[in-house]
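Entry 14. Structure prediction run on the chain below.
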Amino acid sequence: MNQESVNCLIIGSGPAGYTAAIYASRANLQPVLYEGFQSGGQLTTTNEVENFPGYPEGVNGMAMMEDIRNQALKFGADIREGVATSVQLSDTEKKVIIDDNLEITANVVIIATGASARYLGLESERKYRELGGGVSACAVCDGFFYRKKTVAVVGGGDTAVGDALYLAGLASKVYLIVRKNFLRASKVLQERITNTPNVEILFEHITKEVLGNESFVTGLRLEKQGNEEVIIDVDGLFLAIGHKPNTDIFKDQITLDENGYIVTEGKGSKTNIEGVFACGDVQDPTYRQAITAAASGCKAALDAEHYLQSK
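Output returned:
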Protein backbone atom coordinates (compact mmCIF):
# COMPACT_ATOMS: atom_id res chain seq x y z
CA MET A 1 0.00 0.00 0.00
CA ASN A 2 1.27 3.47 -0.88
CA GLN A 3 1.96 5.83 2.00
CA GLU A 4 2.01 9.58 2.45
CA SER A 5 2.41 12.00 5.36
CA VAL A 6 0.55 15.31 5.48
CA ASN A 7 0.12 18.06 8.02
CA CYS A 8 -3.66 18.64 7.80
CA LEU A 9 -6.04 16.14 6.25
CA ILE A 10 -9.66 17.11 5.52
CA ILE A 11 -12.10 14.28 4.80
CA GLY A 12 -15.16 15.39 2.82
CA SER A 13 -16.17 18.41 0.80
CA GLY A 14 -19.26 20.60 0.79
CA PRO A 15 -19.49 23.97 2.60
CA ALA A 16 -17.83 22.61 5.76
CA GLY A 17 -14.90 20.85 4.12
CA TYR A 18 -14.16 23.53 1.54
CA THR A 19 -14.39 26.33 4.12
CA ALA A 20 -12.06 24.42 6.42
CA ALA A 21 -9.67 24.15 3.47
CA ILE A 22 -9.83 27.92 2.88
CA TYR A 23 -8.97 28.74 6.48
CA ALA A 24 -6.38 25.99 6.81
CA SER A 25 -4.65 27.12 3.60
CA ARG A 26 -4.52 30.74 4.71
CA ALA A 27 -3.01 29.56 8.00
CA ASN A 28 -0.32 27.69 6.05
CA LEU A 29 -1.44 24.30 7.32
CA GLN A 30 -0.98 22.87 3.80
CA PRO A 31 -4.29 21.00 3.85
CA VAL A 32 -5.01 17.98 1.69
CA LEU A 33 -8.74 17.46 1.11
CA TYR A 34 -10.37 14.30 -0.19
CA GLU A 35 -13.82 15.05 -1.61
CA GLY A 36 -15.57 11.77 -0.90
CA PHE A 37 -18.44 10.15 -2.80
CA GLN A 38 -20.09 13.45 -3.76
CA SER A 39 -17.80 16.29 -4.66
CA GLY A 40 -19.41 19.41 -3.21
CA GLY A 41 -21.76 17.52 -0.91
CA GLN A 42 -25.56 17.52 -0.71
CA LEU A 43 -25.90 21.08 -1.97
CA THR A 44 -24.86 20.05 -5.47
CA THR A 45 -28.30 18.44 -5.84
CA THR A 46 -30.08 21.75 -5.14
CA ASN A 47 -31.03 23.75 -8.20
CA GLU A 48 -31.34 27.17 -6.61
CA VAL A 49 -29.89 28.49 -3.35
CA GLU A 50 -31.31 31.81 -2.21
CA ASN A 51 -30.41 31.90 1.49
CA PHE A 52 -26.61 31.89 1.38
CA PRO A 53 -25.08 35.34 1.94
CA GLY A 54 -23.41 36.98 -1.03
CA TYR A 55 -25.79 35.77 -3.73
CA PRO A 56 -28.63 38.31 -3.85
CA GLU A 57 -30.04 36.82 -7.06
CA GLY A 58 -29.67 33.24 -5.86
CA VAL A 59 -27.23 30.68 -7.19
CA ASN A 60 -27.24 27.12 -8.47
CA GLY A 61 -26.04 24.78 -5.71
CA MET A 62 -23.42 23.18 -7.94
CA ALA A 63 -22.12 26.60 -9.00
CA MET A 64 -21.90 27.81 -5.40
CA MET A 65 -19.89 24.78 -4.34
CA GLU A 66 -17.60 25.32 -7.31
CA ASP A 67 -17.05 28.93 -6.17
CA ILE A 68 -16.09 27.85 -2.64
CA ARG A 69 -13.91 25.05 -3.99
CA ASN A 70 -12.08 27.45 -6.30
CA GLN A 71 -11.52 29.82 -3.39
CA ALA A 72 -9.85 27.00 -1.46
CA LEU A 73 -7.72 26.15 -4.49
CA LYS A 74 -6.69 29.80 -4.84
CA PHE A 75 -5.14 29.74 -1.38
CA GLY A 76 -3.27 26.52 -2.06
CA ALA A 77 -5.47 23.68 -0.82
CA ASP A 78 -4.61 20.32 -2.35
CA ILE A 79 -8.08 19.01 -3.32
CA ARG A 80 -8.25 15.44 -4.56
CA GLU A 81 -10.80 12.89 -5.64
CA GLY A 82 -11.05 9.90 -3.34
CA VAL A 83 -12.99 8.30 -0.51
CA ALA A 84 -11.80 7.53 3.00
CA THR A 85 -12.48 3.81 3.38
CA SER A 86 -11.08 3.18 6.85
CA VAL A 87 -9.34 5.04 9.67
CA GLN A 88 -7.04 4.41 12.62
CA LEU A 89 -7.39 7.38 14.93
CA SER A 90 -5.88 7.86 18.36
CA ASP A 91 -4.33 10.64 20.40
CA THR A 92 -0.89 9.63 19.16
CA GLU A 93 -1.52 8.33 15.64
CA LYS A 94 -3.85 9.38 12.85
CA LYS A 95 -3.99 7.19 9.77
CA VAL A 96 -6.62 7.35 7.03
CA ILE A 97 -6.90 4.86 4.18
CA ILE A 98 -8.05 6.37 0.87
CA ASP A 99 -9.72 4.11 -1.71
CA ASP A 100 -8.20 1.07 0.01
CA ASN A 101 -4.81 1.76 -1.55
CA LEU A 102 -3.26 4.87 0.03
CA GLU A 103 -2.37 5.23 3.72
CA ILE A 104 -2.12 8.84 4.85
CA THR A 105 -0.62 9.79 8.19
CA ALA A 106 -1.67 13.26 9.35
CA ASN A 107 -0.84 15.58 12.21
CA VAL A 108 -4.45 16.76 12.35
CA VAL A 109 -7.64 15.41 10.77
CA ILE A 110 -10.78 17.43 10.04
CA ILE A 111 -13.87 15.32 9.40
CA ALA A 112 -16.48 16.91 7.11
CA THR A 113 -18.19 13.83 5.70
CA GLY A 114 -21.70 15.26 6.11
CA ALA A 115 -24.98 13.44 6.43
CA SER A 116 -27.22 11.86 3.83
CA ALA A 117 -30.96 12.49 3.73
CA ARG A 118 -33.07 9.37 3.96
CA TYR A 119 -35.31 8.81 0.94
CA LEU A 120 -38.11 6.39 0.25
CA GLY A 121 -36.11 4.47 -2.30
CA LEU A 122 -38.64 4.78 -5.14
CA GLU A 123 -37.38 4.88 -8.70
CA SER A 124 -39.79 7.71 -9.50
CA GLU A 125 -38.55 9.62 -6.46
CA ARG A 126 -34.95 9.29 -7.62
CA LYS A 127 -35.89 10.45 -11.12
CA TYR A 128 -37.38 13.77 -10.04
CA ARG A 129 -34.74 14.33 -7.38
CA GLU A 130 -32.00 14.02 -9.99
CA LEU A 131 -33.94 16.24 -12.39
CA GLY A 132 -34.44 18.88 -9.72
CA GLY A 133 -38.09 18.60 -10.60
CA GLY A 134 -39.86 18.68 -7.28
CA VAL A 135 -38.37 16.21 -4.79
CA SER A 136 -36.40 17.68 -1.90
CA ALA A 137 -35.22 16.80 1.60
CA CYS A 138 -34.83 20.42 2.73
CA ALA A 139 -37.94 22.53 3.21
CA VAL A 140 -35.94 25.55 4.36
CA CYS A 141 -33.71 25.34 1.28
CA ASP A 142 -36.40 24.81 -1.35
CA GLY A 143 -39.73 25.81 0.16
CA PHE A 144 -39.67 29.30 -1.31
CA PHE A 145 -40.08 27.89 -4.81
CA TYR A 146 -43.51 26.51 -3.89
CA ARG A 147 -45.20 29.72 -2.88
CA LYS A 148 -48.96 29.43 -3.45
CA LYS A 149 -48.54 25.87 -4.73
CA THR A 150 -49.48 22.46 -3.32
CA VAL A 151 -46.86 20.30 -1.65
CA ALA A 152 -46.62 17.12 0.39
CA VAL A 153 -44.38 16.25 3.32
CA VAL A 154 -43.63 12.64 4.23
CA GLY A 155 -42.97 11.89 7.90
CA GLY A 156 -44.55 12.08 11.31
CA GLY A 157 -41.84 13.33 13.66
CA ASP A 158 -40.76 16.78 14.80
CA THR A 159 -38.84 17.46 11.58
CA ALA A 160 -41.75 16.55 9.33
CA VAL A 161 -44.28 18.57 11.30
CA GLY A 162 -41.87 21.49 11.52
CA ASP A 163 -41.33 21.35 7.76
CA ALA A 164 -45.08 21.20 7.14
CA LEU A 165 -45.63 24.25 9.35
CA TYR A 166 -42.86 26.12 7.56
CA LEU A 167 -44.27 25.23 4.15
CA ALA A 168 -47.79 26.14 5.26
CA GLY A 169 -46.60 29.73 5.46
CA LEU A 170 -45.61 29.60 1.81
CA ALA A 171 -47.74 27.06 -0.02
CA SER A 172 -51.48 27.23 -0.56
CA LYS A 173 -51.93 23.60 0.54
CA VAL A 174 -49.75 21.12 2.42
CA TYR A 175 -50.39 17.39 2.76
CA LEU A 176 -48.64 15.66 5.65
CA ILE A 177 -48.34 11.98 4.77
CA VAL A 178 -47.96 9.78 7.84
CA ARG A 179 -47.44 6.03 7.70
CA LYS A 180 -48.85 5.42 11.17
CA ASN A 181 -52.17 6.47 12.69
CA PHE A 182 -50.52 9.01 14.97
CA LEU A 183 -47.83 11.69 14.97
CA ARG A 184 -44.54 11.16 16.77
CA ALA A 185 -43.94 14.90 17.01
CA SER A 186 -44.06 16.78 20.30
CA LYS A 187 -47.46 17.72 21.69
CA VAL A 188 -46.85 21.41 21.02
CA LEU A 189 -46.13 20.77 17.35
CA GLN A 190 -49.09 18.40 17.06
CA GLU A 191 -51.38 21.08 18.37
CA ARG A 192 -49.99 23.66 16.00
CA ILE A 193 -50.24 21.46 12.94
CA THR A 194 -53.81 20.39 13.65
CA ASN A 195 -54.79 24.05 13.97
CA THR A 196 -53.17 25.09 10.69
CA PRO A 197 -56.02 25.40 8.18
CA ASN A 198 -54.08 24.73 4.97
CA VAL A 199 -52.50 21.49 6.24
CA GLU A 200 -54.25 18.15 5.71
CA ILE A 201 -52.86 15.15 7.57
CA LEU A 202 -53.20 11.82 5.79
CA PHE A 203 -52.75 9.16 8.44
CA GLU A 204 -52.02 5.55 7.49
CA HIS A 205 -50.92 6.47 3.99
CA ILE A 206 -47.80 5.21 2.23
CA THR A 207 -46.23 6.88 -0.79
CA LYS A 208 -45.97 4.31 -3.56
CA GLU A 209 -45.09 6.43 -6.59
CA VAL A 210 -44.18 9.99 -7.52
CA LEU A 211 -46.17 11.08 -10.55
CA GLY A 212 -45.12 13.71 -13.04
CA ASN A 213 -44.34 14.76 -16.56
CA GLU A 214 -40.95 14.76 -18.26
CA SER A 215 -39.58 17.42 -15.92
CA PHE A 216 -41.73 18.09 -12.86
CA VAL A 217 -43.73 16.37 -10.14
CA THR A 218 -47.49 16.60 -10.64
CA GLY A 219 -48.84 14.20 -8.04
CA LEU A 220 -48.43 11.19 -5.78
CA ARG A 221 -49.90 7.73 -5.77
CA LEU A 222 -50.58 6.71 -2.19
CA GLU A 223 -51.75 3.52 -0.58
CA LYS A 224 -54.13 3.84 2.33
CA GLN A 225 -54.32 1.11 4.93
CA GLY A 226 -56.44 -1.64 3.45
CA ASN A 227 -54.76 -1.30 0.03
CA GLU A 228 -56.99 1.56 -1.09
CA GLU A 229 -55.25 3.63 -3.77
CA VAL A 230 -55.31 7.43 -3.42
CA ILE A 231 -54.04 9.96 -5.97
CA ILE A 232 -53.27 13.51 -4.86
CA ASP A 233 -52.14 16.45 -7.00
CA VAL A 234 -48.98 18.15 -5.74
CA ASP A 235 -46.26 20.35 -7.19
CA GLY A 236 -43.54 19.19 -4.83
CA LEU A 237 -42.61 16.41 -2.42
CA PHE A 238 -40.53 16.96 0.71
CA LEU A 239 -38.97 14.05 2.58
CA ALA A 240 -38.60 14.43 6.34
CA ILE A 241 -37.84 10.89 7.44
CA GLY A 242 -34.43 11.63 8.88
CA HIS A 243 -30.78 11.96 7.97
CA LYS A 244 -27.98 9.45 8.35
CA PRO A 245 -24.61 10.95 9.32
CA ASN A 246 -21.77 9.53 7.27
CA THR A 247 -19.85 8.15 10.23
CA ASP A 248 -19.70 4.39 9.65
CA ILE A 249 -15.90 4.32 9.35
CA PHE A 250 -15.50 6.21 12.64
CA LYS A 251 -17.50 3.81 14.81
CA ASP A 252 -15.65 2.47 17.85
CA GLN A 253 -13.03 5.23 17.53
CA ILE A 254 -14.82 8.56 17.80
CA THR A 255 -17.60 9.26 20.28
CA LEU A 256 -20.97 9.33 18.48
CA ASP A 257 -24.40 10.20 19.84
CA GLU A 258 -27.34 7.79 19.77
CA ASN A 259 -28.12 8.76 16.17
CA GLY A 260 -24.57 8.38 14.89
CA TYR A 261 -23.54 12.05 14.83
CA ILE A 262 -20.03 12.92 15.98
CA VAL A 263 -20.02 14.51 19.43
CA THR A 264 -17.93 17.69 19.61
CA GLU A 265 -16.77 19.59 22.64
CA GLY A 266 -18.79 22.65 23.67
CA LYS A 267 -19.24 25.15 20.86
CA GLY A 268 -16.11 24.03 19.05
CA SER A 269 -15.10 21.17 16.79
CA LYS A 270 -12.91 19.03 19.05
CA THR A 271 -13.76 15.33 19.19
CA ASN A 272 -12.76 12.91 21.94
CA ILE A 273 -9.52 12.24 20.05
CA GLU A 274 -6.73 14.78 20.35
CA GLY A 275 -6.02 16.42 17.00
CA VAL A 276 -9.23 15.21 15.34
CA PHE A 277 -11.95 17.75 14.60
CA ALA A 278 -15.42 17.52 13.05
CA CYS A 279 -17.55 20.08 11.25
CA GLY A 280 -20.73 20.39 9.22
CA ASP A 281 -23.68 18.04 9.10
CA VAL A 282 -21.66 15.10 10.38
CA GLN A 283 -21.86 16.70 13.85
CA ASP A 284 -24.96 18.89 13.46
CA PRO A 285 -28.34 17.11 13.68
CA THR A 286 -30.18 20.39 14.31
CA TYR A 287 -29.56 23.11 11.73
CA ARG A 288 -28.15 21.34 8.63
CA GLN A 289 -27.77 24.53 6.60
CA ALA A 290 -24.99 25.49 4.21
CA ILE A 291 -24.17 28.62 6.19
CA THR A 292 -23.90 26.80 9.53
CA ALA A 293 -21.79 24.08 7.90
CA ALA A 294 -19.43 26.70 6.47
CA ALA A 295 -19.18 28.39 9.86
CA SER A 296 -18.30 25.11 11.56
CA GLY A 297 -15.68 24.44 8.88
CA CYS A 298 -14.08 27.74 9.85
CA LYS A 299 -14.13 26.69 13.52
CA ALA A 300 -12.53 23.34 12.74
CA ALA A 301 -9.66 24.90 10.82
CA LEU A 302 -9.02 27.44 13.57
CA ASP A 303 -9.14 24.71 16.21
CA ALA A 304 -6.69 22.63 14.15
CA GLU A 305 -4.37 25.63 13.80
CA HIS A 306 -4.43 26.29 17.55
CA TYR A 307 -3.81 22.62 18.26
CA LEU A 308 -0.74 22.51 16.00
CA GLN A 309 0.61 25.72 17.50
CA SER A 310 0.33 24.19 20.96
CA LYS A 311 2.49 21.29 19.80
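The mean pLDDT is 94.
Filed with the rest of this week's runs.
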